[in-house]
Amino acid sequence: MQQPLDAPPPSVNPASMEAPNQTSTDPQADPLVKTWMNRVRASEKHWSTFHKRVAHNRKLVRGIDDTADADTPAYNKQRANLIASTISVVLSKVYAKNPEMSGEPTNKSRPLRLFADTVSTVTQTTLEDAKLKQKAKRAVKAAMTCSFGVVKGQWQRDMKVDPIIKARIEDTQDNLAHIDSLLAEIEDPEQRGDQEAKKRELEQAIAGLEAKREVVAAEGFVIDMVRTERLLPDEAVEDIWDYASGDWLIEKIPMRKSKARGQFPDVADLIDRATTFKVGKDMTDDTPRRGMYAGATLVAGGDDPMVMVYEAWSKVDNTVYTMIAGIESRFARQPYHPERLGERWYPYFLLPFQSVDGEFVAQSMVDVLEKLQDEHNETRDKFAEVRRNVRPHFIASAAANEKSLRKVVIPGIGEVVTLDTGDLPIDQFLKQGTQLTIDPAVYDTSPIRNDWEMVSGLQDAARSVVVQAKTATEAAISDQSLAARVAEFRDQIEDWLTEIAQFASEVCLLSMTPAMVETIMGPNPPPPEPPNPILAIASQAMGTPMPPTEPPQPPAYEWPKQSTPDTVFNLINMKIRAGSTAAPNKLQAQETWTRALPLIREMVMAIRQIDSMGGDSEPERELVRETAARFDETIDVDRFLPPKPAPQMAAPAPGLPPIPGAQPGMPMPGGPVPATPATLQ
Fold it and tell me: Less crowded by CB within 10 Å, the N or C end of the chain?
């Protein structure tokens, strides 16, 4: 439930979150900033347990002990990191390539086929340029590791106006922001940094800007990967599928202090009050004071500390608020209303690994496999320890003291141990000890492996751990079982990608001009030249046929000249072709093609026969398409259909027999006399 603006702050210890360098308050402080910072603190406290679990899961998958020496076996925590290998296998099965997108007009009665194809191609190209596959695979891996993954999509045009995007298009705006930050540091009288080094860096930045090696004003659709623990949803949302209905979404964006100084000039004079952190630390809310304070290390070769920027998307008033931790008197920049958004308000897209009804957080793959991995590694560790202790040894009598033992080295034989037994048999003083017995049933991991397969869905063949020899058919059947068990997660990924594609298509329709579309689709052909009226009249008078005109070429694309939300949001629906993102199932594809090939070949021959007889083969062509779709939607049957024959000219209508001696163009008897052009009189 959203807090009212006049509500008191939640019960959070303010001393644990206040800026370490803040000594005074601004008399012109904006009370709305404090309200939003209170919401941030309350949300961080609400999700703190989940965020700690996220950090634990990442360390578990990473499998590295940073406190151990890098050249020792203790550097790797687990004997076998089964969870990491399982995530890699499942990732390759559910997301192996970019999805194939297709647009369908919402109004089937309107001729929008070319427009839908244009939007599909533009959206596909735009998302590929934004590296959708790389960011989406990271989000899928985050969902399996942290319960859900997050990506952010936004149109980039001006870094000082648009939302904060880390994966930006490189252009001169980044250079200008760096120059602004350097100028602010040089002009700051309290800055302890090396002024000469800053000036030298400023000169190099200006020289690089003058070189104009980058795009002057780049814009386009950008996709950013958001870490799971750095997104703070509205606490009132109970189910993860309802995240888009929450009152707000807050993103935590760590940023170097020097960059924040240049990007947010409105708080440049207050940036020293911001809470700072060491570079590379987790910057969690339980250790807010860990780090180097502003100005303490900004010397030549020193560290540039980090500050935490909060970007709050408020659905209540359609406004984006930007704050910096430690500065509660002023927004980092003026609140604004984004212009280039899709039909949905939030540009964030959440992908859960699995969901529980009425719960926002569910178990990830790491959560369900952690105990099984610990049990497996513990069993294997104990087995290795017992195996190391299985050594041949002897048991000697207590009467055989060390003085009775003597080592003698005999040339050609080697070392010989002699024992003084006092003329008694040696077997009364020394005999071989009994070795430890290993019970294989105690160290059998088959039950653990069976539980692992039921939980993860991976079979022996999929994990490349074949306990018993399998034939190719058995391995293929095992792979089919895997495809069926991960089908639900793959279906969620396709729905998630469909939402991203729909949002991207709407943003492109609102932001791209026809000139930008031409760079992807190519220019439209010029209109055909109108016929010469003089030649037309002369040909009619002389009875000669007009020279044939070239048929107009079809347009390359169709794009609205003026795009508004009212006109573009209801034009097209983007879809992801089912199964286009996953790795292909070769056995299933071969069986489907073997069954469909005879039918398609027979119908293609029938179509050729109908076309040769001059009949209409369109019903048979539609029947082939429907048959192929029933077998497999991925089959492009139009590649195998013969081209339609060109339409034949209709025979002249029966009329009067030709008049003997009549010349072409002469009027029929009793007919009207054609007018003679003035130029020919």
Answer: C
